[in-house]
Amino acid sequence: MASEVTQLEKNRTKFIKRSLIGFAIWQLTYLIRYLHVDTVKLITGFTAIIAVIGGIVWAYYLVKIVLLSFLMQKKRPLAISLNNEYFQMIRLKSFTIGFWVILGLVGILFTLSLYVALNIQLVLHILLVAGVISPLVSYLILDKDEVLDDE
User: Fold this and answer.
1) 101 Cβ partners below 8 Å, 6+ apart?
2) φ/ψ bin of 149: left (φ > 0), alpha (ψ from -120 to 50), beta (otherwise)
3) Which of 33, 37, 58, 129 has the greatest CB tally within 10 Å of its CB?
């Protein structure tokens, strides 16, 4: 059972990393459009292709994560060992970090809006991307720190 738990922990980390990369590629290519550098049709087509590939990668690993959670519902002892206090603490800390990142960005963007006219779609898109990426990155960092401490 310990080897299965270890394998599932590695799979969870791998799925999170790859879905994070897919989401970042997908959304950051859309954020490039706000810079108006995609006026050339070649650049527009290239960024659209990259965005689609990133979206597909993100969706694929999102489905894999959901399927893993269904597997965990069927195997309760395994799910309990994978969702111990340590992982609950990491999840709580990462969502706390995500909350503070969003709150900090709101403060920065609000202050910036006093001096510069900001596009509301850009502001919301930045908050969405930061709200998804920051908890995932912090989860991976916190999980990696513990792995390094164990060795």
Assistant:
1) 130, 131, 134
2) alpha
3) 58
Q: Is there a single domain that holds both residue 52 and residue 101? A: no
DSSP category for residue 40? S
- How many other CB atoms sit within 10 Å of the CB of residue 139? 22
Domain stop point among 26, 56, 75: 75
What would the pLDDT profile of 15-34 be if each residue is shown by its tens digit?
889 999 999 999 988 888 77
Q: What angle do CA 18, 20, 25 make, to 5 degrees?
A: 100
pLDDT > 80? residue 40: no
Parent domain of 136: 84-151
Query: Are the C-beta atoms of residues 130 and 105 closer than 8 Å to each other?
Result: yes
**Considering its fold, how many domains does the chain have in total?**
2
Q: Are residues 119 and 89 in the same domain?
A: yes
Which pLDDT value is given to residue 6? Answer: 77
Q: What is the DSSP letter of 115?
A: T
